[in-house]
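Help needed: design a sequence for this.
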């Protein structure tokens, strides 16, 4: 079962214990067969067919290893358009030389099974040669939005994401594209690039789907050892405490520092705990004067976890 909004600050979806959530997001009456295309040409042909019939199309970009968080994006897409394309592409351009590209979980058969009954119509799964043919030379970059937070620890990561997302949007030309708030910096970057490049697509944000204990679903959670998995929900609990402190008038730097201290005491190697403007990601200081977003990234062993919550502003 799924309950909405487990935390006073955010719109989010919590799974029940021992529930993968995969079947929960399937709609059994929607048993349209899903076909797979691997080329830009086939993708465009299918989308043109739908457009010709007056239908609207949404794109849900993913790197596969689909979990209930990804499937929830399809549900959000279905609320906007009659047709949904899911893309699966493990984008080499967004992985650093010492990151987990080679080990990133890939199982297209399992992903197809997960997609069955979700209402998705088409899987677009191009190979690396289709996405980056010989001689590929273009990069899309938004330095002002991506130099710090996750961008500081992952040089070139966001250039890789911005480039592939721009390509996916131009290849599919959807009316809407859905991205999770789980990757909040990425979401803001994509909204910005769509505005800056005049792309005719509505970027739709989807709430974070969480395990029953609060841990945000992620394809990388599978890397956690049993002991690390037990500690992992402390990340969102700590972010929640920072948000509560802010709501009670504590200064941004002070609240973030207390969050970092708590995480380190629990065995995390902290990358950042930050309080930012929810629209621009500009750093905030002192007691809140408007809404904010608390974002954090921290390692447990070799696994990097990220999470975030909004902090609404109410005048006390
Ligand atoms: P990924 O496959 O990790 O690149 O993620 C593909 C999309 O799924 C991105 O828009 C993510 O923000 C979104 N996503 C990943 N995890 C979650 C989650 N737990 N809840 C909601 N959306 C998610």
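Sure. Designed sequence:
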């Amino acid at each position: 079962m799924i309950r909405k909004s487990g935390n006073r600050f955010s719109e989010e979806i919590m799974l029940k214990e021992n529930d993968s959530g995969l079947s929960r997001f399937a709609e059994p009456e929607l048993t349209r067969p899903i076909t797979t295309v691997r080329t830009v040409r086939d993708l465009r042909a299918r989308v043109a067919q739908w457009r010709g019939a007056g239908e609207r199309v949404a794109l849900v970009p993913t790197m596969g290893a689909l979990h209930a968080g990804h499937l929830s994006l399809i549900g959000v897409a279905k609320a906007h358009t009659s047709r949904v394309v899911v893309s699966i592409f493990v984008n080499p351009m967004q992985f650093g030389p010492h990151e987990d590209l080679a080990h990133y979980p890939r199982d297209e058969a399992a992903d197809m099974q997960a997609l069955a009954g979700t209402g998705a119509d088409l899987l677009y799964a191009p190979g690396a040669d289709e996405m980056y043919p010989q001689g590929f030379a273009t990069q899309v970059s938004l330095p002002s939005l991506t130099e710090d937070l996750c961008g500081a620890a992952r040089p070139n990561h966001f250039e890789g994401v911005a480039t592939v997302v721009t390509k996916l949007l131009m290849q599919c030309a959807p009316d809407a594209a859905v991205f999770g708030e789980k990757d909040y910096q990425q979401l803001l970057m994509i909204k910005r690039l769509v505005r800056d490049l005049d792309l005719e697509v509505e970027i739709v944000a989807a709430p974070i789907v969480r395990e029953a204990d609060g841990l945000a679903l992620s394809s990388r959670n599978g890397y956690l050892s049993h002991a690390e998995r037990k500690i992992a929900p402390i990340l969102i609990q700590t972010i929640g405490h920072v948000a509560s402190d802010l709501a009670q008038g504590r200064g941004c730097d002070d609240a973030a520092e207390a969050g970092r201290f708590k995480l380190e005491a629990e065995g995390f190697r902290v990358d950042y705990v930050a309080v930012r403007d929810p629209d621009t990601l500009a750093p905030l200081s002192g007691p809140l004067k408007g809404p904010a977003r608390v974002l954090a990234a921290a390692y447990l062993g070799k696994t990097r976890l990220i999470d975030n919550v909004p902090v609404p502003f109410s005048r006390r």
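The chain has two domains: 24-210, 219-311.
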